[in-house]
């Protein structure tokens, strides 16, 4: 599996990804899942990937090739974020045309998801999720984050803390906690964690970080978070016990 | 779906369950998932259920019938927790024998999980998870909690806070948060929440609670928890940005 996260708030964007790829539990390895295609000063474009590694690598390769070859349509030439999302979707569909039948006949799922976030001239910063089928959805102020991969473990902290008005700084820390909680609870998600923070209208990524499992900061926030949660549960008000009694007898007796 | 939780620590046990049953998202209803089969003063036995409702209801009905009929083997006569777990497993297998082929032929999964926790004379308190296949596993000091149903959302908080030495009071609050976080993030888990707290060697459940969605306590802890998490992320140390740069070029270029 993998876990990637794209968050779009008033102040800007945060994109983050783990680096684990696994085929079952007995083949686990590390691959970069976050790629920066920005042109500093002109446009910011960051993509995260999950799903079948051969598919996502092929798509990322194609994205890189179009830029290298100066193709008329590339991440360095397309003028809207929506068009960027559709363009990536088209790349996914092209790989499907090539590989799908070969994967299907051996029961291998053609499955991949992309997150792409950034800002193009004259547009606000945006984040899109692109599906295996090539269609896409966009993060909105009501739902400012999009997740791909192993999304469940890390969702509650996002649901509980993130709003469109949250500060970028707080969002970045939430994203790290969301990924770290997932790593803690599921071996299919693992370090290093790559994260970028983008301030709206700066057209340049000024904050990026890569955290290895051995990183002292990661150890520090883990310790901090666990002690904080412990303390918070200790101080939480107690339930009023014994306001009801729960029946031994099922109330749906079949007799 | 459903989400149930059984926790076994030094001081005793906590069992908790939501009450949601859904067939897809367009048929959602409430059923009790936590059943108390205790004989106060003699034995404590609490079961939680997840999976196919027709299967779990049939098993719970059988468990009740054996008690009513004074069967030689019942939850009021069996003398070890392990034997109780195997006995429930046998009930599941009996229903499989009856229903399995009929469900299979229409592509309906025969799937159910049980948690059973309690204490029988001369034994420590124990919690078991019983699978659809009738086999079982037990919670241990290294892994003091067992989950069934929609388990992922609520796992990080347990992983981060619960140890075998945690106080029952803290465990109960963690269990509520774990279930409430799941309800917040996934509509297939819903109120009322039923929870029992059992103090080791008391042979009597003295603490039980049922929380409806409208319960002011549930509203209070939600507010408390969200503000606590927000504050905690605010106060969390910042990452050291820009210690690495993330390549635009995939390092696995296919050329």
TrEMBL record, chains A, B:
GO terms for molecular function: peptidase activity. Keywords: Hydrolase, Protease, Proteasome. CDD domains: proteasome_beta_bacterial. GO terms for cellular component: proteasome complex. InterPro entries: Ntn_hydrolases_N, Proteasome_sua/b, UCP009120_prtse. It comes from the Bacteria. GO terms for biological process: proteolysis. This is Proteasome-type protease. It comes from Leptothoe kymatousa TAU-MAC 1615. The lineage of its organism: Bacteria, Bacillati, Cyanobacteriota, Cyanophyceae, Nodosilineales.
């Amino acid at each position: 599996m993998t876990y990637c996260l794209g968050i779009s708030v008033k102040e800007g964007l945060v994109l983050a990804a783990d680096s684990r790829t696994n085929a079952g539990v007995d083949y686990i390895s590390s691959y970069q899942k976050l790629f920066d295609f920005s042109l500093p000063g002109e446009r910011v474009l960051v993509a995260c990937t999950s799903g079948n590694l051969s598919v996502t690598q092929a798509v990322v390769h194609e994205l890189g090739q179009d830029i290298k070859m100066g193709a008329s349509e590339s991440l360095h030439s397309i003028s809207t974020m929506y068009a960027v999302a559709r363009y990536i979707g088209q790349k996914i569909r092209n790989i499907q045309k090539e590989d799908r039948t070969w994967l299907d006949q051996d029961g291998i799922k053609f499955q991949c998801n992309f997150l792409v976030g950034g800002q193009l001239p004259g547009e606000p910063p945006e984040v899109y999720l692109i599906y295996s089928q090539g269609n896409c959805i966009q993060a909105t102020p009501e739902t400012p984050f999009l997740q791909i991969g192993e999304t469940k473990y890390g969702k509650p902290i996002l649901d509980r803390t993130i709003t469109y008005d949250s500060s970028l700084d707080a969002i970045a820390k939430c994203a790290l906690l969301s990924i770290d909680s997932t790593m803690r609870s599921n071996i299919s998600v693992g370090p290093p964690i790559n994260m970028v923070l983008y301030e709206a209208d700066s057209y340049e990524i000024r904050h990026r970080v890569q955290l290895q499992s051995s990183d002292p900061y990661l150890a520090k926030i883990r310790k901090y978070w666990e002690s904080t949660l412990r303390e918070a549960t200790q101080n939480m008000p107690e339930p009023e016990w014994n306001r009801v009694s729960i029946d031994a007898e099922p109330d749906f007796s079949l007799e």
